[in-house]
Amino acid sequence: MKNSSLQPLSLAAITLRILLGLVVFPHGAQKLFGWFGGYGFTGTMQYFTGTVGLPWIIGFLVIMLESIGAIALIAGLGTRAIAAAYIILAVGIVFTSHVQHGFFSNWFGNQKGEGFEYFLLWIGMALALLMIGGGQYAVERIIKTSK
């Protein structure tokens, strides 16, 4: 396979990595730092463990995956592992918090909650990254080729 044949897939991979990372990171920043109106690490952990009833390790992993994981994804470090974890996380979020509100996002405020359409896009992007990897413009690729 010629190197030029990898370029379109690599451009797709970097596009998917950056966009998915940029969409997920603000949610992680809310949970970890309290940015964008979030509750920060302590408040989020209290919510996850007290209100939702998650084990502390799951709450911690969610916070790290959505914040540090998003940055790693953008850089192309651990792309397939993060993509797989994002699929699991998104499916969990859908079935615990969104499926009961139907498909559509609550654009007009006339639903009791948000639907799951956003998470289908998230899952689709993560599935594509799971299949194609981070591409030639990923840190993991640079590390691999420098050995």
UniProtKB/TrEMBL annotation:
InterPro entries: DoxX (IPR032808), DoxX-like_oxidoreductase (IPR051907). Pfam families: DoxX. One of its GO terms (cellular component) is plasma membrane. It is a multi-pass membrane protein. The chain crosses the membrane at residues 6-25, 54-74, 81-99, 119-139. The keyword Ribosomal protein does not apply. Its main location: membrane. The keyword Glycoprotein does not apply. Keywords: Cell membrane, Membrane, Transmembrane, Transmembrane helix. It is found in: Cell membrane. Signal peptide: none annotated. Belongs to the DoxX family. This is DoxX family protein.
